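HOLO CASE FILE
Compound: PPS
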Amino acid sequence: MYQQNLAPIPELYVSYESAQKLKVEAANLTSWDLTSRQICDLELLLNGGFNPLKGFLNEEDYNGVVDNMRLADGTLWPMPITLDVPESFAEGLELGQDIALRDQEGVILATMTVTDRWTPNKSHEAEKVFGADDDAHPAVNYLHNTAGKIYLGGPVTGIQQPVHYDFRGSRDTPNELRAYFRKLGWRRVVAFQTRNPLHRAHQELTFRAAKEAEANLLIHPVVGMTKPGDVDHFTRVRCYEAVLDKYPGSTTTMSLLNLAMRMAGPREAVWHGLIRKNHGCTHFIVGRDHAGPGKNSAGEDFYGPYDAQDLFRTHQDEMGIEMVDFKHMVFVQERAQYEAMDEIEDKDNVTILNISGTELRRRLQEGLEIPDWFSFPEVVKELRRTRPPRSQQGFTVFFTGFSGSGKSTIANALMVKLMEMGGRPVTLLDGDIVRKNLSSELGFSKEHRDLNIRRIGYVASEITKNGGIAICAPIAPYAATRRAVREEIEENGAFVEVHVATTLEECERRDRKGLYKLAREGKIKEFTGISDPYDVPEHPELRVETENVDVDNCAHQVILKLEQMGLIAG
Ligand code: PPS
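Model generated. Tokens follow.
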């Protein structure tokens, strides 16, 4: 058992008076607008969550952390906390120069003295820190495709905390939590890290862990950045608040941690432990596949299921925080209670119930029952509010095809059919209509077409997010742009690509607007199919042929597809 020390830990803020002065001076400095991830990192640097770091890592510390999880002075630190910037920003700086660090609204949060500037070997960082240079890992993907090319290092001086407007009462700095534990006399505190909603099994395992460690319990969820696709933190926090009532009074508390996770498995577990130690905890629960990133591009797990526990155990004496291993809790039907899987002796004679994460998502998506033994009714209600069944979610139908292929006509028929069904608002973003309003200044160069499709995609994704149906009907000739729009929309709901596959010959034969004739005569330039390219969709959700098929039937094929995808109730 490690001795708990609840004395305040060093923060990197200057006093209130100095901050006011520094803020005025910093306004004249070159400034860097922090990315969302950097804001999370800065918050924990400034409030001592990343103690003993005093700023973004310099090159020597970075090399030590990447290669052997240690700062240059030998202190254990598993995660590179770096300020990545583009070359264009780094070029103009001189070493020793102070820069202002601003949030996304332009508020100056801190200054930093740039002592180091270097070009990291990102593949090496990926291999060493994340175990593989594979973009299927979210942090490796971030490293290669989002992070800037250059790293800046140096100490930071805090002016003010990053501003949060949500759940302000539940966000605590390490020193606030330490003071809370001091006040309540909590000498042993076990922390539970989570990025998922809590169900009954979690409540059982955390309570059991606390009992075993004879400790109080801190539910310490991450609300900064988690794995793409996770339940948003607003919903999760409402769920956690409901679960908090299920613990015996004054045994348990919850605090929100604005951490940007990296999903680095074993290294992440050690990092999480150090952060919890800084927050005054004595014990930390490490689960199977802790902070696991999912499968690599070969379809295999990035880390072994117990790698995180093994690495944590190796370092726990040095860290001064004790690991409590996560028990796999399952529901035993005959005894109507949760039990640790490895402690059930009569496994062959009892019925063991469990619902996987995938199965839970399926049940939510299809509006199916989620039994009481699995979760708390309050939690299920919150999840259902956020993730209604697919037949109540927004979606986008995206028609693509040549000019005159019949996109607009089918889109109009589809709109009317959906409006007849009712239930969700329907918006038609037809090519011609968009070009009269949203994109009136654009022509038909590749750049302008892309901009046009991006705008349509943005509006459709907002409609989808807000539970409506967007029907888009532009030519959208470029596959890469269609894919980008798909990705944007799929964050909020389904994207149904419909290729209206009328051949160019047929479109030209129909020539309903007389445009093909003009294009052939060279009077309209860059005309799709004649003097401009069209990438035929390879895997649309649906391909409709229009030759010898009437419009009503084409629209009906789309309706059947939507039914099949669960987007409209049959
Ligand atoms: S794009 O490529 O998706 O941005 O095009 P879109 O916004 O759908 O606009 C296509 C309509 O504009 C008319 N038009 C042209 N189409 C293709 N190429 C050229 N150069 C061109 N110039 C004008 C044409 O009427 C298209 O309408 P639809 O409804 O597709 O027939």
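CASE NOTES: The first strand starts at residue 31 and ends at 33. DSSP finds 20 helices and 20 strands in the chain.
CLOSED: yes
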